[in-house]
Design a protein that fits this description.
The structure holds two protein chains of two kinds. Chain A has helices at 53-65, 111-115, 167-184, 225-244, 290-298, 304-315, 319-327, 329-345, 349-358, 368-383, 386-399, 401-408, 415-425, 432-443; strands spanning 2-13, 69-70, 73-74, 77-80, 90-93, 100-107, 121-132, 136-140, 143-147, 154-160, 196-206, 217-222, 252-257, 262-268, 278-279, 286-287. By secondary structure, chain A is an alpha+beta fold. Chain A has three domains: 2-292, no CATH class; 302-383, no CATH class; 386-443, Arc Repressor Mutant, subunit A (Orthogonal Bundle). In chain A, the strands form four sheets. In chain A, strands 2-6-7-10-1-11-12-13-14 form a nine-stranded mixed sheet. The longest helix of chain A is centred in the middle third of the chain and has 20 residues, at 225-244. Chain B is an alpha/beta fold. Chain B has a single domain (3-442), classed as Amidase signature (AS) domain (Amidase signature (AS) enzymes), CATH 3.90.1300. In chain B, 35% of the residues lie in helices and 15% in strands. Chain B has an eleven-stranded mixed sheet, with helices on both faces. The longest helix of chain B is centred in the last third of the chain and has 24 residues, at 334-357. The chains are: A alpha+beta, B alpha/beta. The A-B interface holds A 39, 42-51, 78, 80, 82, 84, 87-90, 146, 272, 274, 276-278, 281-284 and B 61-62, 68, 70, 75, 78, 80-82, 84, 179-184, 186-188, 214-218, 292-293, 295-296, 298-302, 304-306, 325, 328-330, 333, 337.
Chain lengths: 445, 447
């Protein structure tokens, strides 16, 4: 019996105004190549990096949302390697002194545990650190073009411990991270735009084995949740089969071929890269006071799982609806706005939730008042239908001969009890005034 | 009147008094450059139509639309699209870049011989080296080819050529002057500073170029404000480190320096012996930290966005790239880089302790006067050792001044005055008092 050992690295581009180490705009998507550059992000001789404080704060917010410890002292380091899209010949990153360490997040349990009734499973976060993005290469024919608009855009890397046991957990983790980034407002985390990138390190070992396998396969450059899940499942199967056949697995980097539905080798590592990390001498050491960290923590926006709990407890909404409503921060906010409005008009949160979950809501164009009116109207329409009400009223009269008798004897207040039965039958949706009129006319025939 | 003999202060005064125009001033310097440059090889690039106070700039400092080579063939076609912070500030003060000066490739060297454009000659003796790496900037001031110049000092590259060429050179405290636009040699050690004809001029340039700019994250504080807190040396404690007078110091140089120290005593200073016990480890630490940073700083020279490919690096650049790549490698980082960083801390503490007892520390800048061109060229280790008295100040981040204090066999000797971190005002004041009491700075080479 084999079990997979999987760790995840997630890169997310921050949506700060300016880049990580210069004042160029960080909003590069769709811009004309090399128009948002300066000596710093082009790596021209003589230029120097300067720290974007907003990015540091955003990185710390992510760390806090993931229950990390924030380092009181943190350093940038240089990761040295050559690639044409890397302007300076090194990337300013963090290795030994990351901003945030030792966090955790609750995700869905592995499928087999879920069937045993386990509710959640904890993934340990090794680190959350700050770095910068590289330029972008475009290959056209025999030529390779470089666009440095993306060079030095702030990038946060989140590294987990190898705690994942199957692909469903990976999917849940990635979705949760995306949700966190959006709730914190630090990134749109759009995978198709490359704002959020996943890398998985996968190996398999015998169940019961404690140490990590001697190899690992790195899945890279996969730009959707779905493909990542498919690639992970494929790899787990491939690796187990190979080991069962007695084959030796090697350290390699693989991508996903969606047409063939299989992973393919991008690079086999002879030995580990030596990035010759050393402290970035151009940047001062960063120090943070306890009070500043506390401040950031207490000002964090409400995170998705808190909101989920709140929706269930406070509004009495069922969990599946609450999940849908809290998936998106803006939708959750819109829902809360509707509930407030509903309160004044006697519309229940539950009814609003049903409406929002089942209807396609256009956050930008739908007016909250209109939605509340719709919900009310729906309710009214349903129960003010005379023939339908008459049908129910007739049923109630024939099923309750004693009450009818009492009424006919002159005790007309008994009609309230009959109205109550009609209301019960219509789940409270009947128009009480109309019901009374209908009942009276039927009883006085 | 020979306008080129005037100091910066005298030049500004004369311009204010309309004794001559800026055109006449520039014409005088250009004609001097025209006469001397072929002999001395000081300028790599000369600007013909300047109208400000003529400043010569080390070619490792970025000048917009003026070719900037870093003394290397790899940048022989590099026309920068921007100005270094210091250049922008000088232009605001009415200076202009009259030319870009020769220096050791990427500021790696102590003799000027590592320049890809040939060695600069020492104006006092054309067979001798001018010192390095800011060779041309020192020689330009010595030969009156500019009013003042800028250089960079990573391990002595301002103070040592100033000493060997007989001019004033100031290495500022790390973080005093923005490095933005100085092509990096060793980022944690590099500082820009002036070469001038008088100490007073160095003070003025420091006022002009210092202060944070929001571009160099390690540069901080307001522009330097001269205090001139004392007018004579009475009550000033002058430290003399025994480690700067040991083996390797030329007897002639030692005699000149001892005389200068005596002069400081005559002027009222109290001479105190101090110890900087970790001095002997400075060169070893420096030649680990510097190449490590160099190997990374020079990685951007890949020929993709500017310049030529890496085969165009000179021998010394290649040597240090290899050294640094090795010292940062997995498995060696702790033994080399981390250990060197610890030694660096000890050297810093040496100075901190010494400065508890004294106001300044004085000694030689260079163990010898200028040597023959070619003499140490094939012996990099001997060349490295010639920076033994200047390197510690860079490792500690403190400031230092070199000023003329005598001659040995017709070649200038510089007195080094080291100050505590941010102690520029003190060393400039001590230097100025010494300068006013002596005539060494008035000596000019016969060209």
């Amino acid at each position: 019996m084999y079990e997979p050992v999987i760790g995840l690295e997630v890169h997310v581009e921050l949506n700060t105004k300016s880049k990580m180490f210069c004042r160029c705009s960080a909003d590069y998507f769709g811009k004309k190549p090399n128009t948002q550059t300066c000596p710093v992000c082009l790596g021209l001789p003589g230029s120097l990096p300067y720290i974007n404080k907003q990015a540091i704060e955003d990185c710390m917010k992510i760390g806090l949302a993931l229950n990390c410890e924030i380092s009181k002292k943190s350093l940038f380091e240089r990761k040295n390697y050559f690639y044409p899209d890397l302007a300076k010949g090194y990337q300013i990153s963090q290795l030994r002194w990351p901003l945030c360490i030792k966090g955790w997040i609750e995700v869905d349990p592995p499928s087999h545990k879920a069937s045993e009734g386990q509710e959640t499973s904890r993934i340990r976060i090794n680190r959350v650190h700050q770095e910068e993005d590289t330029g972008k290469l475009t290959h056209s024919g025999s030529e390779t073009l470089i666009d440095f608009n993306r060079s030095s855009v702030p990038l946060v890397e989140i590294v987990t411990e190898p705690d994942f046991k199957d692909s469903s957990q990976i999917k849940d983790y990635a979705k949760k991270l995306q949700q966190i980034f959006r709730y914190l407002g630090v990134s749109d985390a759009d995978m198709e735009k490359g704002q959020m990138r996943l890398e998985a390190n996968i190996s398999v070992r015998k169940v019961g084995q404690k140490q990590l396998p001697a190899y690992r396969v790195e899945l890279k450059n996969i730009n959707s949740f779905r493909f990542m899940v498919a690639a992970v499942e494929y790899e787990i199967k491939r690796q187990i089969e190979a080991l069962e056949k007695g084959e030796k697995l090697v350290q390699e980097t693989k991508g996903w071929n969606e047409d063939k539905k299989q992973t393919f080798t991008q690079r086999v590592k002879e030995e580990a890269n030596d990035y010759r990390y050393f402290p970035e001498p151009d940047l001062p050491e960063m120090q943070f006071e306890e009070s500043k960290i506390k401040d950031l923590e207490s000002n964090l926006p409400e995170l998705p799982w808190k909101k989920l709990e709140q929706f269930i407890e406070k509004y009495g909404i069922n969990e599946s609806s609450a999940r849908i409503l809290t998936e998106d921060k803006d939708l959750a906010g819109f829902f809360e706005q509707l509930v407030e409005l509903g309160k004044k008009e006697g519309v229940l949160a539950k009814d609003i939730a049903n409406y929002v979950v089942n209807q396609k809501i256009d956050l930008l164009n739908d007016s909250p008042q209109q939605i509340i009116d719709d919900i009310k109207a729906k309710k009214t329409n349903l129960i003010s239908d005379d023939s339908q009400l008459e049908k129910v009223a007739k049923e109630v009269i024939s099923e309750n001969p004693q009450m009818v008798e009492t009424y006919k004897k002159g005790k007309v207040t008994i009609i309230q009890a009959l109205i109550g039965v009609v209301m019960k039958k219509t789940a409270g949706k009947a128009d009480a005034t109309k019901v009374k009129i209908i009942l009276e006319s039927l009883l006085n025939l | 009147m020979d306008l080129t003999k005037l100091s910066l202060k005298q030049t500004i005064k004369a311009l204010e008094d309309k004794q001559f125009s800026k055109q006449e001033l520039n014409r005088a310097y250009l004609s001097k450059i025209d006469t001397l440059n072929s002999k001395l090889n000081v300028f790599l690039e000369v600007e013909k139509n300047t109208l400000g106070i003529p400043a010569a700039i080390k070619d490792i400092i970025i000048t917009q639309n003026i070719k900037t080579t870093a003394g290397s063939k790899i940048l022989s076609n590099f026309l920068p699209p921007y100005n270094a912070t210091v250049i922008g500030r000088l232009l605001e003060k009415g200076c202009s870049v009259i030319g870009k000066t020769n220096h050791d490739e990427f500021a790696m060297g102590s003799s000027g011989e590592n320049s890809a454009y040939g060695v600069t000659k020492n104006p006092w003796n054309l067979k001798k080296v001018p010192g390095g790496s800011s060779s041309g900037s020192a020689a330009a001031v010595a030969a009156d080819m500019c009013v003042f110049s800028l250089g960079t000092d990573t391990g002595g590259s301002i103070r040592q050529p100033a000493s060997l060429c007989g001019v004033v050179g100031l290495k500022t405290s790390y973080g005093r002057v923005s490095r933005y636009g100085a092509i990096a040699l060793s980022s944690s050690l590099d500082q820009i500073g002036p070469f001038t004809k008088t100490v007073e001029d160095a003070r003025t340039i420091l006022e002009w170029i210092s202060g944070e700019d929001g571009l160099d994250a390690n540069c901080h504080g307001k522009p330097f404000q001269p205090q001139k807190s004392f007018k004579n040396l009475s009550g000033i404690k002058i430290g003399v480190p025994k480690e700067y007078f040991g083996k390797g110091l030329d007897k002639g140089v030692e005699k000149v320096i001892r005389e200068a120290i005596k002069k400081l005593e005559e002027l009222g200073g109290e001479i105190v012996e101090v110890s900087l016990p970790h001095t002997e480890y400075a060169i070893a630490a420096y030649y680990i930290i510097l190449p490590s940073e160099v190997s990374s700083n020079l990685a951007k020279f890949d020929g993709i966005r500017f310049g030529f490919d890496r085969s165009k690096f000179g021998a010394e650049a290649k040597r240090r790239i290899m050294l640094g790549t090795f010292t940062l490698s997995a498995g060696y980082f702790d033994d080399y880089f981390i250990k060197a960083a610890k030694v660096r801390t000890l050297i810093k503490q040496d100075f901190e302790k010494a400065f508890e007892k004294v106001d300044v520390i004085v000694g030689p800048v260079s163990p010898t006067v200028a040597w023959d061109i070619g003499e140490k060229f094939d012996d990099p280790l001997a060349m490295y050792l010639s920076d033994a008295y200047t390197i510690p100040a860079n490792l500690a981040g403190i400031c230092g001044l070199s000023l003329p204090c005598g001659f040995v066999e017709g070649l200038p000797v510089g007195l080094q005055i080291l100050g505590k971190y941010w102690g520029e005002d003190t060393i400039l004041s001590v230097g100025e008092i010494y300068e006013q009491a002596t005539d060494w700075h008035k000596e000019k080479p016969k060209l």
